[in-house]
Amino acid sequence: MDISYILFIPLIPLAVFLLLGIGYQKIKPTVSGYIGVAGLATSAALSYYAAYQYFFVSGKVDGVYQTIVEKTVWMNFTDTLHIDMGILVDPISIMMLVVVTTISLMVHIYSRGYMHGDTGYTKFFAFLSLFSFSMLGLVLATNLFQIYIFWELVGVSSYLLIGYYYTKTSAVAAAKKAFIVTRFADFGFLIGILIVGYYAGTFDFETLNAVNPEGEGLLLNWASTSFMGLSVITWGLLLIFMGGAGKSAMFPLHIWLPDAMEGPTPVSALIHAATMVVAGVYLVARLFPMYYFVEDGFALNVVAYVGAFSSLFAAIIALTQTDIKRVLAFSTMSQIGYMMLALGVSSYKGHEGVGYMASMFHLFTHAMFKALLFLGAGSVIHAVHSNYLKDMGGLRKYMPITNITFLIAALAIAGVPPFAGFWSKDEILVAAFEKNQLLYFVGLFVAGLTAFYMFRLYFGIFWGKNTKYKHEPHESPMSMAFPLLFLAFMSIVAGFIPFSEFVTADKVAFEAHLNLPLAAVAVGTGLVGIIIAWIFYKKENDLAERFANAFGIFYKWTFHKFYFDEIYMFVTKKIVFNLISTPIAKFDKKYVDGTMEGIGNKTVLISEKIKGLQSGRLQDYAMFFVSGVVFIALIFIYLWTN
Amino acid sequence: MNLNSFIAMRQEIFLLTILLLLIVGEIFIHKNKKESLVHFALFLFGIHTIIGFFAIEETSLFGGMFRTNTLIHFFKNALNVGVLIVLLQSADWIQEKMVPLNKGTEFFMLLFSSLLGMYFMISAGDFLMFYLGLELSTLPVAALVAWETSKRISSEAGVKFILSAGLASGASLFGISLLYAATGSIYFADISTVLTSTNLTLLGFLLFFAGLAFKISLVPFHFWTADVYEGAPIGVASYLSVISKGAAAFILMILLFTVLKPLMHVWENIIYVIALATMFIGNLFALRQQNMKRFLAFSSIAQAGFILLGLITGTQLGTATVVYFILVYIFTNLAAFGVVQAIALQTGKENRDDYNGLYRTNPNLSLVMMLALFSLAGIPPVAGFFGKFFLFAAAASKGYYLLVFLAVVNVTISLYYYLLVVRAMFIRKNENPIPFFKSKIYMRLGLLLTVLGILVLGLYSPLYDYIFELSTLFNK
User: Where does the record place it (chain A) (predicted)?
Assistant: First the structure.
């Protein structure tokens, strides 16, 4: 299978970025919108073609999906250790290509309406394309180092997009926060990469993940050295997961995600719902054989528990938030926790690998309906010019398309059949039930919470009190409505894709069955959540408030997101800044800088002293020339003879 | 002369043809239409550069006096590209200032003669051919340095250059004769078999070395550099700093690694000392320079010191890193000189303080300059970083840790003064900065080529592997 055309999938957005970036003063805004959409549409078309080719024509050999790599050596360190650049094609990378290009294309189309009239219109599209390029490059990376390079590029471009409204202080702060927190996590990632690279002797995913023919263990010899009771490779994997947790907003590195909602809403849909935040999940999936086989999956267990806890934690916080984008942000964190959980309880072979499949499945469906939710929220915000639930209510009359599509997305995420979320969530719960019942109950409980807060949001926006609006809200233009409709369609049908045929841990297709009792329990839990939300928020009443008062302190804690921001502030400001940074800064100023400045001054002084050598007189130069020869001759012929 | 030898010498023959065509043109074209000869010369040289990229086979001609192989050919191509850039960057200056004085075509003729000399110098198979090439490459440049006869400083630079060059070439010739006396041959192939380390050969080597060290501007043979660069037309200065220096460093490396290999235990120490002296002196002087041309002169002295780090190894790795570094250096230094030239041509200003606030008025030029300076300073991921990194790695692989450490110290010093220029352009305020201007097409093309070179060399690594493969030719 020739895969070289896949290279164009990331390169086209890069070309668009360069074009718009260089010519942003000369290109008309409308034109730049079209260029952006056209570029992404081409990439998306290529991705669909690649997916078709791979899954249905030539990707499968003897029932196993092949991993196809094309690469060149970029930097050579030793005979075995080198950094390559290339593209890697396997089921998950193809799937991610489809997800990223689809969502990105929808966001591009949507932005043409949403950002209309914005002064930095062209710049916005340039940034979107840069982000798409980085994300696609990340997906196609063939080795740890390449993925790290694109990982950082994704970080930078998301920084640019979150801080897009750079005149707004809060947006700048949020961008900085996102950047610093993820950078901090990436530091762990980098150390992890170096550890794995050093002990395994390679960065290549193919070599790292190579499994023996019986599928019982890695070919990689990982049991080399141990450190504090764990194999160093396990430590490496844990650190790599730290990077993944940072990007995917897992507890306790989640604090940047809610603030990142300061960015334009299409950006939130692209970055914080469908693409960048699942990079962590993708990373673990990419290294799944390592996570599973190294030290009996110790690192994978950590992934499972971190995922489950984040999922629960975020779902609880989402219950009380009043900014609709923040509810969606916490919901994203919760759903990504779900995916991590699913990966964490997965095994490698055949049907036991259902968790892996479910995780990727959920990643796929979640991308569709969560992007839809964000874009729907954007549509609402566009209409009422506020992010807060208190300013909304009764909008169903004004915005029918947004209403219906939002409802579909809410049903999908709540896990109501036959919408997409039901199918993928069911597989996750099946996987958890078979492996770890505790995690299963956590997952089930979160499913109920999800249904509740989602419908709290839905009823709060579109039903509830009949707010009087200063300007009558109106349905969004077609450029914004079309992506909503398309994604709504996807949220309905995506669940019927037989994912286990395509994306599995060992790359061999298996039959997945609907586990009826488990499905019934999950749907029941979801419906309970929806019904409670119905009672609380369908009509305007004070039930919810009374309930909140009854919970008192707990409500307050959740509302303030368990004071995590405050804790971080306390630790950084009070402890790190005052107790550590300030003394070090003083020391640095006085002694380190002093020494350096001293050396610098001395250098300048010497430079001043020897300036007489360059007299400008040719006679002197000739003298130096000849005496130089004589001098060197004397030294090397008579004194320094070895 | 059969077809094979014709093909082997085709770079030389083509260049000579261009030269003759220019003479014919100069004679027969009317005085008022001389300007068209500038385009003509550029066009011909462009063609010559492109044709050069066709492969060539390893050949030896004239009983071993002239030889060529893929690495030498590759290097000639690098020189061609460099000269093409120099010409593009100087074209506006020639058209505006020199053609009215009826001195436009001669500029090309002299420059091409010098380049021809370099071809012969690096293709030499014996000391005679080498010496002829050396002289042919030097003498026309002396005329070019003094080209702006109306300026006193230019004439002074010309005199300084010709006298220093005379001294150097005299030393070189004396050294060659001593080597001949000791070995009884001037052919490289013969000398390398019979050369032994005696006081006579050592002295011969040293004198010979001094002559080349003059061309590369190694301390203590470097004094002419700053004065000449300052006085010479900028195009000539950049030619001296890049093409002349690169070619001399290349042939020095070939000679050290092949003919003079028996003396390695001595020359590695000499190079050690001279590398340190060159880096430190170059950097310490560069610190204080206000004039951009002098500044670049000392910076190029310091850069030559870094080249020696690769020379000291005497291995294939050393060859590859030196060639790669020179290649990077050609593009990088030409970018810096190009910006200086563009500004000097437009405004006549060449001091660092004049550059204050340049970014606000001429962002593109400032960015090119910044890229060039970052590359000179060796900041990743620009090409210059890899150039230095490979050199240091090569030296470290032979155990010269102290030398590498001191080289890193020098990189730090150089970073300081390179950033001074960046600060001037980007940060410092200026009441009346250099106003916005747009250079002509040749200049912009010349700058574009340098930028492309810096980026491609930095990011496209197979090129280095290719050079590394070629480098086996001189390290059997």
Answer: Endomembrane system; Membrane
Kindly report whether the peptide bond that precedes residue A252 is cis, defined as omega within 30 degrees of 0: yes
Q: So what's the pLDDT on residue B447?
A: 92
Residue B239: predicted pLDDT: 94
Interface check A604 vs B, CB under 8 A: yes
- How near does any CA of chain B get to the CA of A171, in Å? 26
Place of tokens 């290009």: A101
User: Measured between CA atoms, how close is B160 to chain A, in angstroms?
Assistant: 6
Question: DSSP class of residue B187?
Answer: B
Structure tokens at A399: 């915005």
% of chain A with per-residue pLDDT over 70: 94
What whole-number percentage of chain B has pLDDT above 90? 46
Q: CA nearest A615 in B: which residue?
A: B223
Q: Is B281 on the interface with A (CB under 8 A)?
A: yes
Strands A60-61 and A64-65: antiparallel
Report the Cα A387 to chain-centroid distance in Å. 23
Q: Is A636 on the interface with B (CB under 8 A)?
A: yes
Residues in B closer than 8 angstroms to A633, CB to CB, are 202-203, 206
pLDDT at position A224 is 65
CA distances from A378 to A382, A385, A537, B102 (A): 6, 10, 21, 70
Top residue of A84, A605, A614, A635 to mutate, by most chain B CBs within 10 Å, is A614
The model's confidence at residue B406, banded by pLDDT at 50, 70 and 90, is very high
**Inter-chain CB pairs, A–B, below 8 Å:** 83
Residue A1 has pLDDT above 70, yes or no: no
Are the C-beta atoms of A336 and A405 separated by less than 8 Å?
Answer: no
pLDDT, residue A642, reads 58
H-helix or E-strand spanning residue B60 = strand B59-61
- Average the pLDDT over B453-470 and give the result: 84
Instruction: Spell A398-420 as b/e; 16+ CB within 10 A means b.
Output: bbebbbbbbbbbbbbbbbbeebb
A610 touches B: beta carbon within 8 Å:
yes
Which one of A74, A622, A640 has the shortest CB-CB distance to B461? A74
Work out the pLDDT band at B475, boundaries 50, 70, 90.
Answer: low
Cβ count near A8 (within 10 Å):
14
Q: Between B214, B273, B285, which is nearest A607 by CB?
A: B285
Average of pLDDT values for A89-97? Answer: 88
* Token pair listed for B299: 């910076």
Residue A84, SS3? Answer: strand
Which chain B residues have a beta carbon less than 8 Å from that of A618? 159-160, 163-164
Return d(Cα B330, Cα B250) in angstroms, integer: 13
Domain boundaries, chain B: 3-474
Radius of gyration of chain B (CA): 21
pLDDT at A419 over 90: no
Interface contact A496, partner B, CB < 8 A: no
pLDDT digits (tens, 9 = 90+) for A447-502: 888 888 888 888 888 877 776 766 777 777 777 888 888 888 888 888 888 877 88
Q: Does B268 touch chain A (CB under 8 A)?
A: no
**pLDDT class for B241, splitting at 50, 70, 90?**
very high
Instruction: Judge: A603–B224 Cβ closer than 8 Å, yes or no.
Output: no
User: Phi, psi (5° rounding) for residue A210?
Assistant: -60, 130
- Chain B residues in contact with A629 (beta carbon < 8 A): 171, 206-207, 210
Interval A380-391: pLDDT, tens? 888 888 888 777
For residue A601, with 0-12 CB atoms within 10 Å meaning exposed, 13-18 middle and 19 or more buried, which class applies? exposed
- Interface membership of B438 toward A (CB under 8 Å): no
Q: Is the distance from CB of B246 to CB of B330 less than 8 angstroms?
A: yes
The string of pLDDT tens digits covering residues B325-367 is 999 999 999 999 999 999 998 888 888 888 888 888 888 899 9
